[in-house]
Design a protein that fits this description.
By secondary structure, the chain is an alpha/beta fold. It is 48% helix and 15% strand. It contains 15 helices and eleven strands. The chain starts with a strand and ends with a helix.
């Protein structure tokens, strides 16, 4: 598929996840075979005021590309300025606007899914961002504030008219958050409404789920978020399954080498103290279902150094072979 003039080599997209899709995690997922990775959600006003915390989120490496950078906000001027800044920085291949975040502090700012209540403001933001960048431009939306999906369809039509190049659609309502089931029928409806590519998102936990979504909805690609935290190899498994009809589970050795790589990446990016605090939860993702995982998780709760983390990983691997 293509997004504007950008050729996408595959059908998998990593969803933006606050506190998760940082550079080291994106690199890991990309190494595993994901087609497109996405930054954490970045505040347009944070970029406008040159917040160090916000600008740090824009750090990237060549091996992540193609990289999508997602911005959020409710002010057309700062959103346009953020898009222009990212465009000129030269590290992003796609600029995305978040119209789907249902976190209260984002909604209180009038951003995220709150914008789906105000299509006039949404149109202004989309128009301003489109004028600010020549990069491929996408939006990520929800069903809206009721289950009908009408707000999603209306916003999608506006977006297409204003020059948006693709839409990622998570068919849950603002009130649902991540509860209940995603209504894939709405993805099919949206796909029939617009001519630009539609990326389906929601309730993809296995390669079979991805194939079923593509079959049921006709969407052009799939986006995976929370399930990639539980199984960082999932996106590559989806690519394998769609290309060959089968997929491989990673060998234990590959899992442990990936854990070591993530540990080093986090320490390099965040510094040892912050990295170890984060790795207490992150490394636990990889060992679910393995013998001894509970003991490993308990020891992670007191992790204080990268050396300790690497030692734990190697000990776990050695004991698993006994």
């Amino acid at each position: 598929m293509k997004i504007k003039d950008l050729e996408i080599n595959g059908i998998t997209f990593l969803a933006p996840l606050a506190g998760v899709t940082n550079m080291p995690f994106r690199q890991l997922i990309k190494d595993c075979g994901c087609a497109v990775v996405c930054s954490e959600m970045i505040s347009a006003k944070g970029l406008f005021y040159a917040s160090e915390k916000t600008t740090t989120l824009l750090k990237s490496q060549e091996d992540e590309r193609p990289l999508s950078v997602q911005i959020f906000g409710s002010d057309p001027v700062s959103m346009g300025q953020a898009a222009a800044f990212i465009n000129d920085l030269g590290t992003a291949d796609i600029i995305d606007i978040n119209f789907g975040c249902s976190v209260k502090k984002v909604i209180k700012q009038g951003a995220g899914v709150a914008l789906m209540k105000d299509l006039v403001l949404s149109q202004k933001i989309i128009k301003t961002v489109r004028e600010a960048t020549s990069l491929p431009f996408t939006i990520k939306i929800r069903s809206g504030w009721d289950a009908s999906g009408d707000q999603a369809v209306n916003l999608a039509e506006i977006a297409e008219d204003q020059g948006v190049d693709a839409i990622a659609f998570h068919p849950r309502t603002a009130v649902q958050g991540f509860r209940g089931r995603a209504d894939w029928k709405l993805i099919a409806r949206l796909k029939q409404t617009v001519r630009i590519p539609v990326i389906g998102n929601g309730d993809i936990a296995t390669p079979q789920d991805a194939k079923e979504m593509l079959s049921q909805t006709g969407c052009d690609a799939v986006m995976v978020g929370r399930a990639a935290m539980a199984n960082p190899f999932l996106l590559s498994q989806i690519e394998q399954y769609m290309s060959h009809g089968t997929f491989a589970h990673p060998e234990p050795r590959a899992i442990f080498r990936t854990m070591e790589s993530l540990t080093r990446g986090y320490v390099s990016y965040f510094g040892e103290i912050t990295a170890c605090r984060m790795l207490r939860g992150r490394l636990a993702w990889f060992v679910r279902g393995l013998p001894g995982a509970a003991v490993f998780r308990r020891e992670l709760s007191i992790l204080a150094s990268s050396g300790h983390a690497l030692e734990m990983i190697r000990d776990f691997e050695a004991n698993l072979k006994v």
